[in-house]
Specification:
The structure is a homodimer. By secondary structure, chain A is of the alpha/beta class. Chain A folds into 2 domains: about 1-125 and about 280-310, Quinone Oxidoreductase, Chain A, domain 1 (Alpha-Beta Complex), CATH 3.90.180; about 125-255, Rossmann fold (3-Layer(aba) Sandwich), CATH 3.40.50. In chain A, about 30% of the residues lie in helices and about 25% in strands. Chain A has helices at about 40-50, 120-125, 125-140, 155-165, 180-185, 200, 215-220, 240-250, 260-275, 290-300, and strands at about 1-5, 15-20, 30-40, 65-70, 85, 100-105, 110, 145-150, 170-175, 190-195, 205-210, 225-235, 250-255, 280-285, 305-310. The radius of gyration of chain A is 19 Å and the shape is globular. At the A-B interface, loops of A face loops of B. Chains A, B: This is Alcohol dehydrogenase zinc-binding domain protein.
């Protein structure tokens, strides 16, 4: 099969398409024919060597997949060959979705949402679970909560806005001016241009801040949270100083990592199928353009997601 | 830390206790201080080399754990240090619970059931999920169903009897005569001595047969299933001839493999806490007696489970 790999850490141009063997599913796993995978910022960190989660190269990146079950190992009853599925397999101990086939533990995939293309469904798992687990599992967002989403036009942010709205929250969003129409179209009630205004003056008394940006946004966000409010961040999850500042201020700090899990995927499927969630795909590129896809993701200017198709 | 390992495939005496480094949890994982682990037949197959799921030795066996969270990687919010948890981490790509510490993906563990000792909770995950996923996810057992459990006195079987009863089924069980009192104490409505009687003459018109024995039981079980009834088997899951025979007879074949999953663990916790499920621990041995524990499991004469404690 064709897969994207790299022989060394480095810039986007280390990514190359090679011919390699199909991966072999183990017990409790299935083999999925990849129709779409998505590029996430974490992929670029691993590619560059700044977050060497997969060890030394060579390896195949890619945790998002939408595709069709090609083969099930005897003993798997949740899926059968031909089923359309999506998910986020093998994180964090292996990856592999920048390829024609990927293996997936049965409990790390779910039925693909009806009404989404493979490109859309392949854009959803990692950002969708990151948003869902942050808003629901970590912060417990409820109807009527006031929720601020930083980076509302990006991969995680644009899904977080929709999920917060679906949960019944009043959603305040920060984004650059060029993304305001997009963010409003997602359902945000208020949109703040972070370059033109100080969000700490433009909003306040929030129940939850979901920070998909990092780099100083977290600490400033403590000021706009109500006492007992929750700061959710996947970006600054290891920031002990921020956690301490939150505790000192009487706010709750929830640093999160995405966790592969079928129950979250099933929740996302339900949201999509009830018309309340739709991932936005900015560009669909072939595997051969993986380097270009990484450049786009690293630019930070993309609305929504970059998808690769084998 | 101390851990049981092996330098070659072989009999129980290849198992030895060594000093080794604590495993390091990755993102989305926790480090668990092991208070109890259980020995499962699959461990013996891997130890002997007949099912080389973990590759070549050395490796540390053990998929069951009950213990206390020692450390969480920043980003994990489901658990905190000090939490009592149980689960079945890392199957099938790694293992490691025959040790003082094991790493566990957050979504492959759950809160330890209240009212169980660590020895009891450590005995439950693999057999409990094997029984739950077979009876509920694969066979869809409902109130009033007639369910036959083969090997009802063994590790999986003794849990399957209790779960089937909790689901409201009428439970018929096969076991050797010496285990009949035990199996009746689990709630079985009818118990058949498979040596004294042909179960195909002693029962029939069943909705589900759960075969935890294998070796010919599966094919004979097709005769006692009603049309459309389900044969569940983890032992003969790869038996294509049996699957074909079931299809030809108008019965459904469900070969299953256990899948690590917090939702099943949570269901087991609920059953335990409502008084409907309790794993039976036959022997508790120290890690140093891992060889003896394997001998006991391979003897097939144990009622319930063999547990190791570090």
């Amino acid at each position: 099969m064709r897969a994207v790999t790299q022989r060394s850490f480095g810039g986007p141009d280390v990514l190359e398409v090679v011919e390699t063997e199909r991966p072999v599913p183990l017990p409790a796993e299935v083999l999925v024919r990849v129709h779409a995978t998505a590029v996430n910022p974490v992929d670029a960190y691993i590619r560059a060597g700044s977050f060497p989660l997969l060890g030394e190269p060579p390896f195949v990146l890619g945790w998002d997949v939408s595709g069709v079950v090609e083969e099930v190992v005897p003993g798997v009853t949740r899926f059968a060959p031909g089923d359309e599925v999506f998910g986020m397999p093998l994180f964090p101990r292996a990856a592999g979705a920048y390829a024609e086939y990927v293996v997936a533990p049965s409990r790390q995939i779910a039925r693909k949402p009806a009404g989404l293309s493979h490109a859309e469904a392949g854009a959803l798992p990692l950002v969708g679970l990151t948003a869902w687990q942050g808003l629901v599992d970590a912060a417990g967002v409820r109807e009527g909560d006031r929720v601020l989403v930083h980076g509302a036009g990006g991969g995680v942010g644009h899904v977080a806005v929709q999920i917060a709205k679906a949960l019944g929250a009043h959603v305040v969003a920060t984004a650059s001016a060029s993304k305001h129409d997009f963010v409003r179209s997602l359902g945000a009630d208020e949109v703040i241009d972070y370059r033109a205004a100080d969000f700490t003056e433009a909003t306040g008394d929030l129940d939850v801040v979901y920070d998909a940006v990092g780099g100083g946004y977290g600490e400033r966000s403590l000021r706009v949270l109500r006492p007992g409010g929750v700061l959710v961040t996947a970006v600054d999850r290891e920031d002990a100083a921020l956690a301490a500042a939150a505790a000192a201020a009487g706010r709750r700090f929830a640093g999160i990592t995405v966790e592969p899990d079928h129950t979250g995927l099933e929740a996302l499927t339900a949201l999509v199928e009830s018309g309340r969630l739709r991932p936005h795909v900015a560009h669909v590129l072939p595997l051969e353009d993986a380097a270009k896809a990484h450049e786009l993701v690293e630019s930070g200017r993309t609305q929504g997601k970059i998808v690769l198709t084998p």
